[in-house]
Write a structure and sequence with these properties.
Order of helices and strands: HHEHEHEEHEEEHEE
Structural class: alpha/beta
Largest sheet: 7 strands, mixed
Distance between the termini: 29 Å
Helix content: 25-40%
CATH architecture: 3-Layer(aba) Sandwich
Number of helices: 6
Radius of gyration: 16 Å
Shape: globular
Strand content: 25-35%
Number of domains: 1
CATH superfamily: Vaccinia Virus protein VP39
CATH topology: Rossmann fold
Number of strands: 9
Length: 213
């Protein structure tokens, strides 16, 4: 992706098979996530595709497809895209950096970014949300999920695999403000406690927003 460094793609390539093995079925234990993804699928059905940005191993794309949505899975990591081809074979896949999305203006009905913007530097995040806004049709919707907090956690060993990945915990009000500044109308801000035994024990945040005409 011209103009941007890719500091984490190689780490995700290395961890992709283990990540897919552990994460592929996690949505079964996340009822709120399923509810929000189903809402996104309902809001976009028959209108156009959803871009699953930072799709990882494709479990979210698989769920959206099963809910009747048309989905395009995109990720900066070729290794993750390979896993997505197995987990969500119905969804077309494309290499993509969310800071420079390969989608035409107004070409998507929805954008889904589950735990993807947590890897973006704070000064680049407003541009990412402008990219989400650019690719969405009028009335299109964006669903963004993230860990809640203020810290940055660096991971150098992931299930015994050497990586170098920063996880930025974020505040719901900050994400909403940045999306609002990019032109979105915020429809919902949701926070929840972690699902014990299912996921990393951090509070989770979601912003559901719509692109105005």
């Amino acid at each position: 992706m011209a103009g941007f460094e890719n500091p984490f793609g190689a780490s995700y390539d290395r961890v992709a098979p283990a990540y897919a093995a552990r994460i592929a079925d996690e949505l079964r234990g996340k009822p709120l996530d399923r509810l929000l993804l189903s809402r996104l699928a309902d809001d976009t059905r028959g209108i156009g595709p959803i871009g699953d940005v930072g799709c990882g191993p494709g479990h979210v794309a698989r769920y959206l497809s099963s809910a009747g949505a048309e989905v395009i899975a995109s990720d900066i990591s070729p290794g993750m895209l390979r896993e997505a081809g197995v987990i969500a074979p119905i969804a077309p896949r494309t290499a993509a950096d969310m800071r420079q999305l390969p989608f035409a203006d107004h070409s998507l009905a929805g954008v889904c970014a589950f735990y993807a913007v947590i890897h973006i530097l704070p000064d680049e995040r407003p541009h990412v949300f402008r990219e989400f806004h650019r690719v969405l049709r009028a009335g299109g919707v964006a669903l963004v999920a993230f860990h809640i907090g203020d810290e940055v956690r660096r991971l150098e060993d992931w299930w015994g695999i050497a990586v170098s990945v920063d996880f930025r915990f974020l505040r719901t009000e900050v994400i909403s403000a940045e999306m609002g500044a990019a032109g979105f109308v915020i429809e919902d801000e949701i926070e929840r406690a972690p699902y014990s035994g299912v996921e990393h024990p951090s509070r989770r945040g979601y912003v559901y927003a719509r692109r105005t005409p």
